[in-house]
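Researcher: Here's my situation. A collaborator sent me these components and asked whether they could plausibly form a single complex. I don't have experimental data yet, so a predicted model of the whole assembly would be a useful starting point for our discussion.
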Amino acid sequence: MKLINKTTIGWLVVAIAGFLVLQLAVTTGIISAYYEITLVTILINIILAVGLNLIIGFSGQFSLGHAGFMAIGAYTAGIITKYFPTYTGLFLGILAGVILTSIVALIVGIPTLRLKGDYLAIATLGVAEIIRIVIVNMQSVTNGAAGLSGIPYLSKWPLIYVFTVLTILLVANYTQSSPGRATIAIREDEIAAESMGVNTTKYKTIAFILGAATAAIGGALHASYFSVIRPGDFTFNKSVDVLIIVVFGGIGSITGSVVAAILLGFLNVFLQPFGALRMIIYALALIGIMIFKPSGLLGNKEFTVSGLLRLFNRKSAQGEG
Amino acid sequence: MLTVNNLAVHYGVIEAIREVSFEVKEGEIVSLIGANGAGKSTILKAVSGLIRPSQGEIVYEGTPITTATPKQIVEKGISQVPEGRHIFSGMTVLENLEMGAFLRKDKNEVEKDLQLVFDRFPILKERKNQDAATLSGGEQQMVAMGRALMSRPRLLLLDEPSMGLAPILIKEIFHIIEEINRTGTTVLLIEQNAKMALKIANRGYVLETGNVVQTGTGEELLESDIIQKAYLGG
């Protein structure tokens, strides 16, 4: 996996510019404490959506279990940071969450990834519910249905931002790599991929585990920012929320997931004053997108620096001519 | 080069083929012909490891590959053009061809083979950055064949390359198959188009409902009663 290519540089430039703009907005007070919550929600949603997009968009496996993996990450990091309320504790917590989630995803993935389409969706949905119910019943460790509170507030927004960028870099690079290409080939045509010598189970499982691991990161950051987590935060609805972002942005487009997470985050804020009408308008926006652009906002296109340069060159060439 | 002994494949309880035996010698074109449902594609899938036979043995160059994975089989030098082409429609022509060399580590040689494929199918070079889905049926067949060649196979398995193509294109495809064979690749061809398949074949096998019912050289089979009656309307 090559770490420096045009896509990576493009993302880095955007990431640093984005950070500077946000930093400026926070210090000048444009982003108030209230809007900071929106910012963090958007960032965590980006992490979740990009990870789910790897599973759904790139490997073509329909998973509805994202909330379950997020829950494992959130609870693992939450419990560990309660004992070690330091940054070391947080990083240990994230690491432990990622490892635990990967193990669960591996155990779940090997049998279920033989299923296709709806069957896989139902199996992963079931797994997420099992995870939630296990958390509810592990009273002594997780405090059951009441949830964990008093988790040390360690993940400030810049830290979450860094993790968001790292997650995007990881997924973007994976999809550009040779295993990533194999993963896309499986989505395009599983039989053909297999006859090219691609070990389909292996690459589907890798994509599934990577996606689940990023969900754990998202969950851990969520726990550490909001200080309170309850099993009710990680229901089927949460998985669907993430799925909506992926579909809205474009299945198979990382840029799309990022854009959709931002847009839907803003939409939520602007619709806040409308109360109950909010969900209706939100739903209408989604239906509208599905009617007028069924492939999502960006289809499967990606933002790249080279693409941007090409666009500029074309524009300037037109200007001269 | 490839010997298949008493092969049987079951889909659940349904027996798709039984006691099928045939042989492909190095440098040959061998055609397996038969009507729909005769079990032709099943044989090919068993050889390429996509399905596991319930009985019998497949031996490639002296080593049994009956239980080998598709990956191991590709690595041994057997490459398949699946029925109905199965190209990666969301990828460009070039990406499709590169997928064919997925298991290869010798990047320089892959580059050479890519040029060879472009020499053989000049139209693909013109369209290399186009999405494979936008190609015509004949061009897609060329992508599928070019992709299979990118693994540098010694034995090429072709499943119904004439399917859904205009007669003039079928002629061209068969001409290309002969060309590929002439440059040293052994070919196992599966076809419903018996006349074309037997014309270019050194030897052929006729399948009927899961059984080999006749065998001989391409010419012998073309002349034989069973073929004349069943396929050529004689």
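Model: Some features of this prediction you could bring to your collaborator: Chain B has a mean pLDDT of 89. The longest strand of chain B covers residues 14-24.
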